[in-house]
Amino acid sequence: MPPPISPTEAGFSPWPRVTVLAAMVASAALARLIPHPPNFTPVGAMALFGGACLTDRRLALLLPLAALFLSDLFLGLHILIPVVYGSFALNVLLGRWLRSRRTVANTAVVALLGSVQFFVVTNFACWWLWYPQTAEGFAGCYVAAIPFFQNTLLGDAVFVTALFGTLAVAERGFPVLREPAPTAVAS
User: Looking at the 3D structure of the chain, how many domains does it have?
Assistant: First the structure.
């Protein structure tokens, strides 16, 4: 039995897809520069989208991370950058899990999980840095963050829908943007 034909040998080029995905991530990052309510941003959605849609694991992390960093250069850097970027990396991992399980329901659940983990991780850092190291300080930090969490949930929902929905429409109209089905490996 001859070895399976790789997508490249069959005429598939990943570059049209990668180019479109990069443009979509860059557009989402630019949306951070438009005035918006606090925490109503595409950050979580960019990470999930990159993790779920980019084949190369390194690119899945680096492309959205670079877009985040470039937009942060315009918005300003702050002491929580390492925590925010760590949370961002966790969202990329959630996107990697979603990669082979992408349905509307799974995407919604993963977007919710990404919002929750961002809330928990970043507010833990806020508590550690700026609140009393007591149960009251801990509770006060998380209670004060609830309005921001509502915006995070809404922002992630809107931007996840926009990114994944736009890609689905683009893939239908332009088959060259579709990822090829994995080929079976001969045993």
Answer: 1
